Amino acid sequence: MSQPYSIGTVGTPWTTQEKQHWLQAQSIKRSYRDNVISKITELKKTFTVEQYGSLNYSERIFDLFAIKSPNWDITKPVALVTGGVHGYETSGVHGALEFIEKFGQHYSQSFNLLVLPCLSPWGYETINRWNPHTIDPNRSFYHDSPAQESQMAANYLAQYDKNILCHIDLHETTDTDNSEFRPALAARDGVVNHNWNIPDGFYLVGHTQKPQADFQKAIIEEVAKITHIAPADEQGKLIGVPIEQFGVINYDGTKLGLCMGVTNAPFVSTTEAYPDSAVATPQLCIDGQVAAIKGALNYLIKTPL
Question: What are the helix (H) ranges across the chain?
Answer without folding.
Answer: 16-24, 32, 38-43, 90-107, 121-126, 148-157, 176, 182-189, 213-224, 282-302
